[in-house]
Amino acid sequence: MSTNSSPTRVVITGLGATTPLGGDVASTWEALLQGRSGVRTLSGDWVADMPVHIGAPVAVEPSEVLPRVEARRLDRSGQFAMIAAREAWAHAGLAGADVDGDRLGVVVASGIGGVQTLLSNYDLLKEKGPRRVSPFAVPMLMPNGPAASVGLELGARAGVHTPVSACASGAEAIAYGVDMIHAGRADVVVCGGTEAAIHPLPMSAFAAMMALSRREDEPQRASRPYDKGRDGFVLGEGAGIVVLESAEHAAQRGATPLAEIAGAGISNDSHHIAQPDPVGTGAIRAMQEALRRGQLRPEDITHINAHATSTPQGDVAEATAIRTALGAAADNIAVTSTKSMTGHLLGAAGAVESIATVLALHHRLVPPTVNLDDLDDEVVLDVVTTEPRPLGTGPLAALNNAFGFGGHNVALAFRRSA
Question: Annotated catalytic, 344?
């Protein structure tokens, strides 16, 4: 494995999450290793009329974590982001630390934004008139609302940003954070993604596109990436946040990095608004660019956390792209899709899966892809199933892929710190 000669190395020093598997990183990681699914039959009066009745809501409700007054002023997506950001900040050892706000950035993405606030206030407007619309509605529904709230909490003044690139948003936020540090704009960036779209309108829209799984008799087996019986993704919710630092800044304060972000690749298919390029041309470019920027060879990659959502076309397109981008080296790469357990967190997916990738490198252990009973003949990859797989000793590097409607492609390359 070659050494990254970039003048500014970027490391990860903190992780935070709230997901369908757990209210923090530790519980989420434990569930991933155990192969537990967070998918279940949804509850609520509105569910009965839905074309699909299953989803992957967060395991711990924000009301159990946030003070009531604070929660009321944040959209559900903002609540998730704040919970994950506080965990990541504390995990990085920065709680109570003297961090220069002028050198601190925040990048928190969302694919859809504050849709629950938008739609609930529209209902109030129709039913009870304009005076009943919340004065907090606009800052709550803004896609940049979660990023702004986290930035205000931390005193970030180097820049607060919100990439919106559908299901690639969370990964693009991390790539943007890397760019901020490389450009000299910041020493520390808190970044990731959040999403809270388990609501009648988004679910009805995804169902109308035939994108959601209809395997309602076995909710926990509905998300089945790469399996011949897959029939769509399961909508999930949650947030993932990481703390990025320049290696120099982390060393100066005595922080021990969990991993290094070696490189990021971003491209677009320019093929279709919702369907992937069947040969994965844009995905290939993103992966190869991440390797190039990280000065990594295909042979250096030991693990891929794939985008693999459990859709018939998307899974095959990505598998084809991986084989093309990495060539014969793909035979020796342990591939997994943690969406088989979390469902698809849309704009938060790339961030949560980056956390899983970092932990896989840190612990040298890859979580399994569950529900894979009959591997698709067109998926010629070494997919980890049944139980976690050890990665062994020696240098390690991994890729995390994230793709989104609009043709967005993001690949992040990680290197184990030691």
Answer: yes
In one letter, which amino acid is 402? A
Whole-angstrom Cα distance, residue 241 to residue 69? 23
List the catalytic residue out of 161, 199, 249, 344. 344
Q: Token pair for residue 150?
A: 């986290």
Catalytic site includes residue 191:
no
What digits encode the pLDDT tens for the residues 385-411?
Answer: 999 999 999 999 999 999 999 999 999
pTM for this entry: 0.97
DSSP 20: T
- Locate 205 and state its tokens: 């829209």
Active-site position among 91, 161, 199, 307: 307
Query: How crowded is the C-beta side of 226, counted as CA atoms within 13 Å?
Result: 29
Residues 352-393: tens digit of each pLDDT: 999 999 999 999 999 999 999 999 999 999 999 999 999 999
Backbone dihedral region for residue 213 (phi beyond 0: left; psi -120 to 50: alpha; all else: beta): beta
Q: Kindly name the residue from 167, 191, 303, 362 that is annotated as catalytic.
A: 167
363 is catalytic: no
